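Work Package 4 report. The design task specified in the project plan requires that, given a folded chain encoded as C-alpha cells, an amino acid be chosen for each position. We show below one input record used in the internal validation round.
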C-alpha cells in the first residue's frame, strides 16, 4: 500500500520491483497480495490493454482512521479515551504528541464555533429567534 500511495497508479510489476530490495517476492505473490488488497477495498484496478493498473481506493489517512476505529471497537470497548490512555501509559505517546493533539483539538473546536453549519452542529436558540 505504501508504494501505491506514494507513487500513484502502478502495475503489479512496478510494485514488485519497488519492493524487491526490502521484500523480494515472486510475480505471482505480488499479484495475490494486490488481489487481496482489492478484495478488502484498499485498491482498485483499471485495465490498460491486458495490464492491470492498481491505485489506492482511499487515502492513507482514511484507511488509518478506519483501522484505528476497528482497534478501538475490538480491543477498547469502543472507547477512544481508553486507547489513548493505554498509549500514554505504554509510552507510545509522549508529551509533545499530546500537546500537538491538544492544539489540534482546540483548532477543531474553534473552527466548529466559527462555522456551525459546516461542522454539522445545530443552530443555537439564539439563531432560531432571528
Amino acid at each position: 500500500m505504501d508504494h501505491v500511495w506514494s507513487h500513484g497508479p502502478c502495475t503489479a510489476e512496478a510494485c514488485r520491483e519497488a519492493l524487491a530490495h526490502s521484500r523480494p517476492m515472486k510475480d505471482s505473490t505480488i499479484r495475490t497480495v494486490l488481489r487481496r488488497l482489492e478484495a478488502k477495498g484498499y485498491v482498485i484496478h483499471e485495465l490498460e490493454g491486458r495490464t492491470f493498473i492498481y491505485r489506492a481506493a482511499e487515502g492513507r489517512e482514511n484507511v488509518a482512521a478506519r483501522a484505528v476505529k476497528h482497534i478501538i471497537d475490538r480491543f477498547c470497548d469502543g472507547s477512544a479515551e481508553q486507547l489513548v490512555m493505554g498509549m500514554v501509559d505504554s509510552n507510545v505517546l509522549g508529551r509533545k504528541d499530546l500537546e500537538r493533539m491538544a492544539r489540534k483539538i482546540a483548532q477543531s473546536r474553534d473552527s466548529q464555533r466559527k462555522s456551525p453549519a459546516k461542522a454539522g452542529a445545530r443552530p443555537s436558540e439564539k439563531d432560531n429567534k432571528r
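Residues 95-114 form the longest helix (20 residues). Validation will be extended to a larger panel in the next phase.
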